[in-house]
Amino acid sequence: MEYVPTTLVGATAKQIARAVRRGDTTATAVVADHLEQIAISDPELHAFRVIRGGEAMTEAEKVDDQDDLSNLPLAGVPVAVKENTAVAGLPTWNGSAAVRTAVAEEDHEIVRRLRGAGAVVVGVTRAPELSLWPFTDDEELATRNPWALDRTPGGSSGGSAAAVASGLVPMAHANDGLGSIRIPAACCGLVGLKPGRGVVPCDLGIDGWFGMAENGVLTTTVGDAAVGFSVLAGRRPVKLTEPSRLRVGVSLRSPVAGTKADEPNRNAVATAAKLLVDAGHSTLTAEPDYGVKLGPQAVATWLASAHREAEALGVDLSSLQRRSRMHARLGKFVFNRGWVRQEQRDAWRERSIAFFADRKVDVLLTPALAGPPPAADGWAKASWRKSFQASAQYAPYNAPWNFAGLPAIVVPVGTRPDGLPLAVQLVGPPDSEVLLLSIAGQFEVANPWQRLAIV
User: Fold this and answer.
1) For 422, which of 147, 211, 268, 427 could close a Cys bridge (C-beta 3.0–4.6 Å)?
2) Is 216 part of a structural domain of the chain?
3) Could you give the residue numbers annotated as active site?
4) Residue 185 resides in a domain
């Protein structure tokens, strides 16, 4: 894949917006350059389901026609939207033709907020069927990790991660029901913040996977992540400041029995802990009590979410991929037997909040992944068992915090021996999104990462 640097392709969202607001360039020129790069690179990456060439150029012209751009934090910034989220004038694909819905008449609220901030939607990015899996492919093709084309960019927001990591857009919308912002961020060397429950509008499917799903963005810098979070949360731009001395709990314990982080991911946590100490914080071992029930409860909720989504969409299960069909059928079984209970989610949330208070820790540091990104190809035709086992083995650390509704962020920390990105996860109590971003900013200053996979 040839990377062709043009004007502001590869720049950050903040750099692009600043240049457009100052009149150093135009939204039209910026979007045209990014569309050209998408045309060059995406045939190999398969990050996009749909590219909105003409429509995006028209919308960029409307940004340029505005008299005052000073209050547009994303003025002229090309962005992408995950394909399970409504964009006016396009069908909502939901990961495959089998679950595609009709052309949307209105934007999802998240898309409306991005446009309101001056962003231009250049396309929608690929996700696995029903956004169920931490790999992104279908029967026809696989979305590829720009760092290594034979590896997955993760999922379910894999197309968004691939687009950002390759510089095709500086920011992409993503959402996270069991790790689908943070897993692709870790696979692709990006910053990915999952907001806490109720902070950013959700409105995804049937009650947002029992309240587990959240919307966010994927970016290459903490500054861009902060701008994106502010826009989606409907807040004034966040000004990040260095946090005062914090107590950081450190945990390598996996929530999934029988899995643990490999050596590179353990080393990433050790590196991050040292960076925190060097920044003036203190660290201590603090292991969450995941217990024996959390895993089965989270799996049952994941299964039932697939059943309810397929039922609401009126999907003939025989039209789904083999793994998705089994997932939905198992979901119907557990849901009809009452194995998915609100009180279980409430109890884990209370225990999670109490963890921070009882252990007197401000944030929790964990691995982001347990292993490297798996292969890119073959998952859409794989059995449910194979897909399930691979999901649990390489990405066990993320789901508990969806179940609890707590904010969590993934931040790059170096690379694996094979050159693929490494990352860590930081989790905080309710309303700690800005704190998590501030700590991530300290990592960025002390240990800068390579922003783009292709330079």
Assistant:
1) 268
2) yes
3) 82, 156, 180
4) yes
